[in-house]
Structures are given as structure tokens and as C-alpha cells.
Amino acid sequence: MEIRESRRDELVVLELAGRLDAKGAKEVERHVSQLIAAHRAFVILELTGVEAVDSAGLRSVLRLHRRLEAGEGFLMLSAPSPTVREALEVSGVDRELEIASTLDRALARATPEALRADRTGKLAARLLGVPNRVEDEDPRSAVRELGHIAAALIRPNSSGSADARRPPPKASDPTDDAEAARPSRGLASWLDRLRGRSDA
């Protein structure tokens, strides 16, 4: 397994080439362990050069994802070949972490703001009792939206207090606050389905 490392601000991109089997997975895990020790916890695995992946490689990816997430880090996969992508989907790995079709899309997605929103969203989901997974539906977009909502509500200003820069609601329209706090139609629908399942 060949591993080429590059850095983009807080992110580390590891371009892999070869087979992600038991031997290759050990090399990747060793490399990522060194990054974790150096407090580099935001990682993208670029898979364009990966010829094949087996069960050992898939388990390794999940272990890395959970290790990084436990330390408030992040793991994303990018640009897998059709064969590798099929293995990720059949194994369910694609339901555990994000897979971007290209490295550029992964980099656009993995901005510091988005990473903070993801972490805030996961915390909000746990506080609200939202499960990590909904049957036949990936809840990550809703969890991310919870993160953006929570981050917007608690974003500090330069003095460290709550976002005092937000203008007060206009007296002529008392519905402004309710409208701003209302979740999007997609999030509301998803939460309604959760409630329906819990009531059943």
C-alpha cells in the first residue's frame, strides 16, 4: 500500500494506492495513529488508486472512523472506484461515514464550519434522543442540519457572549422568531417519522 500525505489547513489527505486488504489496512492504521498522536484528527482517505478492498480493509476503515470520531475528529472517503464503492455499500460502511465522489467535493464538504456543525449536531441528536440511524433512511443530513441550527444559536461574538449581533424581531411582525426557529421541511418530516416510530 502506497500512502501519500498532503495537508490542507486542519485537514490531512491520504492518497492511497494498492489493495486495502489486511496488510494494506495495517499500514493505513499505523499512519493514521501517527496523525492522531500529532493531534491531526481530520482525515480524508482518497481512494482513486485503491484497486480492491476486502473485509479486513472495511473493518479497518470503520475502526479509524470510530477512533477519530471519539476524539472529536473526522474521517471521510473520497473518489472510490465503482468496485470499491460497491463493497462499501454492500458492507454498510457508507451508512457509517461520508463518501464523496471526488476529492474536491470532500474538501468542500470538510470545512472547519461544517466539521463543527457535525459535532454540534451529533451532540444535539444525543440530547434529543435521536437514534444514530433510521431504518431505510440515512439521517446524517438531518443531524447536520441540527448542527447548523444549534451552531447558529450558540455562535459566540467577539465578547464571548451569545450572538448579540442578531437584530431584535421587528415589532410589526411577531412571527419572525418562530419562523427563524422553525426547522426546514425535510428536517421536520424526518423528526415526525421518528416520533411516529416511537409512538408505535
Provide keyphrases for this structure.
200 residues; alpha/beta; five-stranded mixed sheet; 8 helices
Show the helix and strand layout.
Layout: E1 2-8, E2 11-20, H1 22-37, E3 42-53, H2 55-70, E4 74-78, H3 82-91, E5 98-100, H4 103-109, H5 112-128, H6 140-154, H7 176-181, H8 185-199
Parallel strand pairs: 2-3, 3-4, 4-5
Antiparallel strand pairs: 1-2
Helix pairs in contact: 1-2, 5-6
Question: Can you describe what's shown?
Answer:
This protein is an alpha/beta fold and 200 residues long. It is 51% helix and 18% strand. The protein contains 8 helices and 5 strands; from the N terminus they run ββαβαβαβααααα. The protein has a 5-stranded mixed sheet with strand order 1-2-3-4-5. α1 links the parallel β2 and β3 (42-53). α1 runs parallel beside α2 and α5 (112-128) packs across α6 (140-154). The N and C termini lie far apart (49 Å).
